[in-house]
Fold these 2 entries.
Entry 1:
Amino acid sequence: MLQPLPTALSQDHLCDLDQQKFIDDFNRRPFKIGHQLNDHPLFALESLIALSKDLPADRVEYNAGNLPVSQDPTSTPKNGLSVEETIQRIQQCQSWLVLKNVELNNEYGDLLDQCLDQVKPLAALVSEGMTHKQGFIFISSPGSVTPFHIDPENNFLLQIRGTKKVWMFGQNDREVLPETQVEDFFSGAHRNMQFEERFRERGQQFDLSPGEGLHFPVVAPHYVENGPEVSVSFSITFQTQDSSDRQTLHRFNRHLRRIGLTPSNVGERPGRDNAKLTMLRTLRKVKNIVRRPADA
Ligand SMILES: [Fe+2]
């Protein structure tokens, strides 16, 4: 049974956000925020065990946590424990665990909404729309590593317990992240990437402690190293119209490449991007009209 939300935390102010930071950097560059979730009972290990039992089994992913930064996703080692054992023994069991789509549980869904309700008006200063709201909770052992990878969402990672070092690279740095790799990712390829030591000088390192959060722009490559304590983090993610359009363009460019064309990279020629989006929206509308059954 989950514990009730304390009155002090049931107010609107869960995150400390800076309007100018959003205008300058949202979905362009990483930036830190503050939050008030450190002592929230939904992040106690007993609550997280209850949540892991409530979520569908395919929404819980875990493995050994002593991985290299460059990890082949086809050979990620298991830890030999159940989900409950993994969370109970997280201090010692050298593991990494993520609870995905925690919004499927009403209490965690409400908390995600409360946080994102604060983010929404500021994100809207840069890009309209907030869709596909999803929450992820990461529970990891001291010293564990999240390998180098990219993610498809606008993300704020809120550090609840323990510390992390995040290495982050530019979403448009094509030395680190080739355009074709982004296209493959949005067409179903695995998120993990090979890290090359020459990348390091192109990245930024962020130290995260409880009460701090970090914005991850869409597909900004990153890897994460835990500090010497158990770590619990809450990732609040969403799409905007811009990020959805970007996915559409990357997928479309992949099709164009497969038929032998050389499309302009996404963002390089905004006029061409807009023309592609307009054409794809028109095609979708025509398809819907053709498919619509005739009126009786
Ligand atoms: Fe990530």
Entry 2:
Amino acid sequence: MSGSTPELPIVVLDALMPTTQRLVLKRRGSMVWDVEGPRGRYAVKVGYSIEATADWPAQPWTALAPAREGAVLQRLGIEEIAYGEWEHGTWNFQPWHEGPDLYRLWASCREQGSSNTPDASVALECAEALAELHAKGWAHGDVQPAHFIIGLERTHLIDLALARGGHVPEGYDFPFRGCLVHYEAPEIARSVLATGEAEPTPEADVYALGASLLISATGWRAVEYPDDAPRPVQRKAVADGRRRPVKVPGELGKVIDDMLSHAPEDRPTVYEVGKALGCL
Ligand SMILES: Nc1ncnc2c1ncn2[C@@H]1O[C@H](COP(=O)(O)OP(=O)(O)O)[C@@H](O)[C@H]1O
Ligand SMILES: [Mg+2]
């Protein structure tokens, strides 16, 4: 895969017959494309396996992630999705959601000396998108600012590759080994350190929503550790609860602080978050 010009799998080309296609991102083991054709506009996710190098162990799960996400989206009743296999891994396509993500939308709040304050109604939309998933009995597992797309009509929570809550075909399943440490709840970080795996939960999603709102509004991570700290050191700081004070003004700051409570049982549910934000 490395070195060659990236291409869409032929089955995807046949299904979507692109009139325009744009590679949105390519990173180790995955590509995302923005594709338009007669059926409409789709995000196409293509996964392939990563072989071991001197610096990295092999990561066979990157090849499975798009099919796993496709199966989850199907379970959730999302229409206009498809998934399958190609020669190097699996793929899915799903409706394209137009709009900035949470981090980009709040960029002006993070500028030094800015008088812009984060808009609680946007925070409420993010909570509502997560609440919709929790109401269906699923936990997301990978809540982060880039996964909230703030559209004109509504906010979408994307990247369900790690979600837990219903049946996923065995051949496409893989264990949850944590997410981006900035958004990992202490109990998740602790479990990953102890066993290499963890269980996504609604409570951990609420923590991750709080950390996402905080970093998007202020640029600060919820927990203090050096930028270049190795991942286990970052996880240890999270597990130990080395929290930074939340410096977001007003009620929004109070709600974020509650979401970042160390013990999962002390955090509000996402419905309670929605209620609190709805009153701001
Ligand atoms: N349905 C979608 N609509 C619009 N953009 C999307 C969609 N799915 C993915 N993207 C874009 O691609 C990026 C990576 O997608 P993501 O689902 O997070 O994949 P990965 O598994 O590689 O993290 C997102 O941050 C977003 O910019
Ligand atoms: Mg992602």
